Amino acid sequence: xxxxAVLFTxxxxxxxxxxxxxxxxxTHWPVETPLRILVMLDQYLEQDIIWLKSIPKQFLRxxxxxxxxxxxxxxxxxxxxxxxxxxxxxxxxxxxxxxxxSDTDRLLYLDNDILICDNILPLFDQLSDDKTxxxxxxxxxxxxxxxxxGSVWPEVKHFCSYFNSGVxxxxxxxxxxxxxxxxxxxxxxxxxxEFLDQTILNNIFEGQITYLPLQYNYQKDDEWLNGPAASQNxxxxxxxxxxxxxxxxxxxxxxxxxxxxxHGYLQDEFERKFWQTFNLVxxxxx
Length: 286
Fold this sequence. Notes:
This protein is α/β, with parallel strands linked by helices. 35% of the residues lie in helices and 19% in strands. Helix 1 links the parallel strand 1 and strand 2. Helix 8 packs antiparallel against helix 9. The longest helix has 14 residues.
């Protein structure tokens, strides 16, 4: 094993979000520490590859390198019926990435719609060798802790342990030794979950998860936290509110007109920082 790495999987215009995420990562990454960022692209422009590769230099991180890859070849065996506009097949690429990057020790997968708010280097040490994945509880699922299992989303086995797959810390060696790629293809082609990749990962790695602090995948806004969350489950809302004070990764999970690029006003400091970072990286000199 040679190194730790960060992974993004991207399709089309989401490359703009990826660039913003990489810029926010670089802003907080220690200057002297090497890092390899892996970007797997679908439906891209050649100019965007050049743009992504230039971001670390713009943010004065000479030891950070961006490498660009295409989809895992094994994806040709995945049945196309399990695609949707919200969850295109690119979301499944993360399941096969560890096999492509088997030279990594810890592989940190990040969704495109995230903003790094602090140094993520300490995160790599939070997954022990006896666990396969490090992940954060899904915030919406946490609100149903105490409710009858399966009463909200039939595919969610346990509300208290269901995690969000937007931030995944992968123990690469243990991952690829647990399932073969063919086994994963068979699993994918045999189910039709609403949250496809997320529920698959929850099911097949049950009991092999290190649950990371909530601030490493902070998923909701203050209106949700102080309104629906507080009224529905005050105990869980209190835990989320505590994490709100020390957010490391802000994940803009999809809610109708709640994403920064879906409305005009500035909702909070995370949105402000998102647009400031977006502007810096978007308007960089070519």
